[in-house]
Amino acid sequence: VATHSSGNYGAALAWAATLRGVPAYVVVPRDASPLKHDAIVRQGARLIECGPTLAAREAALADVVATTGAHVIPPYDDARSIAGQGTAALELIEQVPSLDTIVAPVGGSGLISGTLLAATPLGIGVSGAESELAGDAAEAMRSGVRQPQMPPVSIADGLRTSLGELKFAICLNHGLNVLLISEEEILSAQTELMRALALPLETSSAVAFAAVKQAGLKGRNGLILTGGNIPFEQAQAREQERQKASS
Fold first, then answer.
1. Which of 77, 171, 217, 236 keeps 20 to 30 A from 84, CA to CA?
2. SS (H, E, C) the chain
3. Number of other residues whose CB lies within 10 A of the CB of residue 19
C-alpha cells in the first residue's frame, strides 16, 4: 500500500499495514517534522521524501506506485478515510453526550468532514479551525469554490493541504464555519495546552483550541486534538520568543 501524508496519516497507515503484514510506502514532504518522519519509519513503512506542495506529493506517489505496484490508500479524498476519521467524533460524543459544538482542525479535511457527518445529525454544531496562512477552506466556504493549496509556509504543517473534491462537497453542504487563526495565536494556544495537559501537542492540533479562545464559544465545546509531533522544549522556546517580540 502507498499514500502521501504530512505525517500523522502516514504513520497510521504504516501501523495498519504492519499489523496486516503488508509493505507500506509513505510520501512525506521533506520539511515535515522529523518526529513525523521517525514515527512513520518506526511503524514499519518505507519513507519517500518530496517537495512541500500537494503537486509534489502526488507526483512522488505516482512514481512509487509505478515502481512498486502498490495499492493507493487515499489520504483524504475518499469516503472510507472520511468515515474512519469520523469515528474520533463518535467516540467523543459517546464520552460526552451533551456537547453543543465540536471544533477540529482543517487540513485535507478528512477529519472535519467525518466530524460533520457524525455530529450534525445529532444536533451538535461543528466548527473548523485553520491557519490564516493555510486558509483555503475558509475561502472555499466563503466563495463556494474549491481553492488550490496556499503556499506551504504555516507553522501548522499538518494543515497545509487543500480540500479534496468529496470533502469540499460535504463541508459546503453542511455550511461549515471555518475560523482563521494567526500564527501567534497558534503558538500561544499550543504552549497553554501543553502546560495544562502535559501532552506534546503539535501546532496543527493547537489551532482548534486557539479557535475556541478567539471565537469565545459558549456552552460545552469538544476539541479534537490531533498529533503530538513536537518536543515540549521547542514549544517553550517559541512562546518565549513570542513574548519577547511582543514586549
1. 217
2. CEEECCCHHHHHHHHHHHHHCCCCEEEEECCCCHHHHHHHHHCCCEEEEECCCHHHHHHHHHHHHHHHCCCECCCCCCHHHHHHHHHHHHHHHHHCCCCCEEEEECCCCHHHHHHHHHHHHHCCEEEEEEEHHHCHHHHHHHHCCCCCCCCCCCCCHHHCCCCCHHHHHHHHHCCCEEEEECHHHHHHHHHHHHHHHCCCCCHHHHHHHHHHHHHCCCCCEEECCCCCCCCHHHHHHHHHHHHHHHC
3. 10
Q: How far are the Cα atoms of 131, 149, 171 from residue 153, in angstroms, in the given order?
A: 10, 11, 24
Cα angle for residues 40, 180, 85 (degrees, 5° grid):
40
Q: Would you state the pLDDT for residue 240?
A: 66
Nearest residue to 5 (alpha-carbon basis) of 71, 63, 50:
50
Residue 77: exposure state from Cβ atoms within 10 A (0-12, 13-18, ≥19): middle
Q: Give the pLDDT means over successive 10-residue stretches in the chain (247 positions).
A: 90 95 96 87 96 91 97 88 93 95 92 96 96 94 93 86 89 96 93 85 91 88 84 62 65
Distance separating alpha carbons of residues 151 and 142, to the nearest angstrom: 19
At 165, list the grid cell: 473534491
C-alpha cell at 23: 509493505
Distance CA 74, CA 96 (A): 31
Residue entry with cell 479562545: 213
